[in-house]
Amino acid sequence: MDLALSCWQLGREMAMTRLGHGRQTFRLLKRSSLLLRIIAVVFAVLLFCEFLVYYLAIFWCNWPEVQTPAYDSEQETPEPVLRAMFLADTHLLGEVRGHWLDKLRREWQMERAFQTALWWLQPDVVFILGDVFDEGKWSSPQAWADDVKRFQRMFRHPSHVQLKVVAGNHDIGFHYQMSTYRVKRFEKVFNSERLFSWKGINFVMVNSVALEGDGCGICSEAEAELTEISRKLNCSREVGDDWDDASAFCPRVFRGHHEVPSVLLLITQLPPPFPPAGDCQARWINRLTSHQQEQRPSQCGDVQLLPASTPVLLQHYPLYRRSDADCSGEDAAPPEERTVLFTEKYDVLSREASQKLLWWLRPRLVLSGHTHSACEVLHAGGLLELSVPSFSWRNRNNPSFIMGSLTPTDHALSKCYLPREDTVLITYCGAAGLLAVLILAHVELLASPFHFGWNLLRKHKIM
C-alpha cells in the first residue's frame, strides 16, 4: 500500500513538473511570437515610410511632352529635347540652428526623394535655385566644409547628369551680409558659371542677391557679367535670324542644320550636291555679306557665338510682384499670407532690377525660388515665371519640384509632388497604436477581439 502511494505521488510530481515545463515553454513561445510580430510591424513601417513611399509618389510623375517641328525632308532630324529638374530652397541645416533630429529627418527625406527621382526620371540636368544651405551666410570655414560634404553625399549623381546651383541669400547672405569671401567660397564649390548652354538651349543663372543697384563692388561685377551675357545673346540672335532667313531663302540647302552657330561656316561645310551656280545659295551669300558689312557692328566680332535660342532665366529671388495674391494651387502660400505685400530687395527683386534683367536677357521663361511656395506669374508680353516650392519638409508639408522638357524653340513644364510629411507621421502613429494593442493584449491588460466578442455574446444570452 505504501509502495503504491509512493508511486502515485512520484507520478503526480512528474506530471506536475512536465506541466510546469509545458507552461514555461508556452510562455516563451508566446513571448517569441509577440517579439516577431513587433519586429515585423516595425520593419514594414520603416520600409514603407523611409523608402517605398518615395517610389510610390514619384512613380506618378512623367516628363511633359514638348512639340518638335516637323519638316518634309527625310534628312531632317528633330530638335533635341533636354530634360531638366528644378529644385529650390533645400536649406541644409548648420551647426547653430540645426538640431540633430531635425537634420536626420529632413535631410534623409531630401536625399531619398532626390535619389529616387534620379533613378526613376533620368534627367539630363538638375538645377537648384538657391538657399542650398541654411547657415551659409554666417558659417565658419569648418562648418561650411561639413555642410558641403553633407550636400555632396545627399545630392550625389551620375557623371552624365549635370548639377547646377544658383546662389541664394542663405548661401552668401543678404546684400548687407554678402562679402567677396562668401561669394568666392560658394563659387569655388558650385562653379561661377553664369551662362550654360546644352542641346541648343541657353540658361542664364543670376546671382540675384547682388542686384541691389547700389553700385557695390559685387553688384557692379554682377551687372557687368550680365551685360556681357546680353551682348553674346544678342550677337547670337542676329546669326540665328540670318539662319532662319537662310532656311526660308534656300530650304533645300539649309534645313536640318540647327546646331552650328555660324551661318558662313555652315555654308562652306554643306555637303554636295550644291544648287547650280548662280542659284539661291550664291545669291544668299551675297545678300548675307552685304548685310554683315552694313548692319553688323564691330562689337560682335570677338564674340563666341551661342545657340540662337532665347534663354531661360534662373535665379533665387523672384522678379518683382506685389504679392502672391494671384497665386493658387495646393502648394501655393496659405490664403492668409497671399495678400501680404512683398518688400523689394528682400522678398522679391526691385522693379528696376527686374526691368533690367528682362531688357538685357529677353528670356522666354523664368524660374525662381525664395518664397518656399508655388506661384505662376505672367509678366508683360506673356512671359511666364514659376516660383518653385521648397524641396524640404522643413519649409512645407507638401514639397515638390518642376520637371521641364525643353528644346531650342519650345518648352513644357509639369510638377512632381513628393510624399506629404503628415502622411508619414500618421502612418507612424497608426503603427505605434497597433504595437500598443499587441503589447496590451499580450500582458492580458486588453482582451483579444475574439475574447471580447465572446464575452459580449455570453452576456447577451444570459440576459
From TrEMBL:
Any Pfam family = Metallophos
Q: Which residues form the Calcineurin-like phosphoesterase domain?
A: 83-373
Q: What cofactors does this protein use?
A: Mn(2+)
Q: What are the TM regions of this chain, as residue ranges?
A: 34-60, 425-454
UniProt subcellular location: Endoplasmic reticulum-Golgi intermediate compartment membrane
Topology relative to the lipid bilayer, per the entry, is:
Multi-pass membrane protein
What Gene3D superfamilies does this protein map onto?
3.60.21.10
Keywords annotated in UniProt: ER-Golgi transport, GPI-anchor biosynthesis, Hydrolase, Manganese, Membrane, Metal-binding, Transmembrane, Transmembrane helix, Transport
Taxonomy, superkingdom: Eukaryota
Its function, per the record, reads: Metallophosphoesterase that catalyzes the removal of a side-chain ethanolamine-phosphate (EtNP) from the second mannose of the GPI-anchor protein intermediate. Participates in the glycan remodeling steps of GPI-anchor maturation to allow an efficient transport of GPI-anchor proteins from the endoplasmic reticulum to the Golgi.
Q: How does it assemble?
A: Interacts with GPI-anchor proteins (via the GPI portion). Interacts with TMED10.
Q: Which family does it belong to?
A: Belongs to the metallophosphoesterase superfamily. MPPE1 family.
Q: What is the protein's name according to its record?
A: Metallophosphoesterase 1
Q: Which organism is it from?
A: Galeopterus variegatus (Malayan flying lemur)
